[in-house]
Specification:
Elements: E1 11-15, H1 20-31, E2 35-39, H2 49-57, E3 64-67, H3 82-108, E4 113-118, H4 131-151, E5 156-163, H5 172-175, H6 178-186, H7 196-207, E6 218-221, E7 238-241, E8 244-247
Parallel strand pairs: 1-2, 1-3, 3-4, 4-5, 5-6
Antiparallel strand pairs: 7-8
Helix pairs in contact: 1-7, 2-3, 3-4
The structure holds nicotinamide-adenine-dinucleotide.
Nicotinamide-adenine-dinucleotide (NAD) binds near residues 19 and 163.
Length: about 250
C-alpha cells in the first residue's frame, strides 16, 4: 500500500506564503503538483476583508487553503498596549476567521475542500512575553473546532498544525543565540528545533486526500516538546553541538 500525498490538478492558496513555514509549504505543494497562489503582503492583507475576498474571487475553484499568515513580537505582559494586542489578534485570529469563512463559501458549492490552519504549541502553553500571540493561537483552536463542526456536512475538512520552535525569520532572534537555544532545546525530546519543511510536510498531509477522514485535528509538530513534562536533556547524558543536543 502507498500513502498518496499528491496535488496533481489541485489549486491551493497559502496565506503568508512568502516566508518561513508558508514559503516551504508553497515549495512542497508545487513539488507535489499543485498550482499554488501566495496570499501575502503587500498585495493581500488578511486583515482587509475586501482585499482577501477580491483575491479569492480572482481564482477559479480552490481545493485547499492554508491559513498560515501570522505575526509575533515578544512584549512583556505589563507593557503590551491595546494596540499591540489588537493588531496581533487582527492578523493571527481574525485573519484566520476571515480566510476560513471566505474559503468555505468558495468550497461549499463543490461539497469538498480542505483547510489547514497554522496554530502553535503556544495554543496550549503560556510562553512569557507573548500574551497577545498566545491568546490568538489559543483562539485559532476555537476556529478549528467550530469550522470543522460546521463545515463537515459540506465535505470540507479543517485541521491545524501546532509547530514548536521552527527556524524562520520570525524566530531568528532565538536562532542567533546558541546559549538560548541550548536551554530551550533541553526541553525537547528530539533535542533540536524544527525546519520549515518539517511543518510543510505535516500541512501537506492534512491538506491532502491521505487525510480524508481527519477533520478537527490539531497536529503537534514540535519534536515532542509538549509531551515532555521535565527536560530530557542535560550535560550528564549529552552535549550541545551545532544547535542539537546529542547523546554523549
Ligand atoms: N516559526 C515558528 O517557530 C512558529 C511556531 C509556531 C507557529 N508559527 C506560525 O507559523 C506561521 C508562519 O510563521 P513563520 O515562522 O513562517 O513566520 P514568517 O515571519 O517567516 O512568515 C509569516 C508570513 O506571514 C505574512 N504576513 C504577516 N502579516 C500578514 C498579513 N496581514 N496578511 C498577509 N500576510 C501576512 C508575512 O509577510 C510573512 O510572509 C505564523 O502563523 C506563526 O505564528 C511559527
Amino acid at each position: 500500500m502507498k500513502i498518496m500525498v499528491t496535488f496533481e490538478d489541485k489549486t491551493v492558496v497559502v496565506t503568508g506564503g512568502a516566508s518561513g513555514i508558508g514559503a516551504a509549504t508553497v515549495t512542497l505543494l508545487r513539488e507535489c503538483g499543485a498550482t499554488v497562489h501566495v496570499f501575502d503582503l503587500p498585495a493581500v492583507d488578511v486583515t482587509k476583508r475586501e482585499t482577501l475576498e477580491a483575491a479569492f474571487a480572482n481564482l477559479g475553484t480552490v481545493d485547499a487553503v492554508i491559513a498560515n499568515a501570522g505575526i509575533g513580537r515578544p512584549i512583556p505582559f505589563e507593557t503590551t498596549t491595546d494596540a499591540d494586542f489588537a493588531r496581533t489578534i487582527d492578523v493571527n485570529l481574525a485573519g484566520v476567521f476571515r480566510t476560513v469563512q471566505i474559503a468555505a463559501e468558495k468550497m461549499k458549492g463543490r461539497r469538498r475542500g480542505s483547510i489547514v490552519l497554522t496554530a502553535s504549541t503556544n495554543s496550549f502553553d503560556g510562553e512569557a512575553d507573548l500574551i497577545a500571540y498566545n491568546a490568538s493561537k489559543a483562539g485559532v483552536l476555537g476556529i478549528l473546532h467550530t469550522a470543522a463542526n460546521e463545515l463537515g456536512p459540506w465535505g470540507i475538512r479543517v485541521n491545524a498544525v501546532c509547530p514548536g520552535l521552527i527556524r524562520t525569520p520570525l524566530t531568528q532572534a532565538h536562532f542567533a543565540r546558541p546559549e538560548t537555544l541550548k536551554d530551550y532545546f533541553r526541553a525537547i525530546p528530539m533535542g533540536r528545533g524544527g525546519e520549515p519543511r518539517e511543518v510543510a510536510q505535516a500541512i501537506a498531509f492534512l491538506a491532502s486526500e491521505a487525510a480524508s477522514y481527519i477533520t478537527g485535528a490539531s497536529l503537534l509538530v514540535d519534536g515532542g516538546q509538549m509531551a515532555a513534562k521535565f527536560s530530557p536533556w542535560n550535560e550528564e547524558r549529552g552535549e550541545f553541538l551545532d544547535d542539537h543536543w546529542v547523546l554523549s
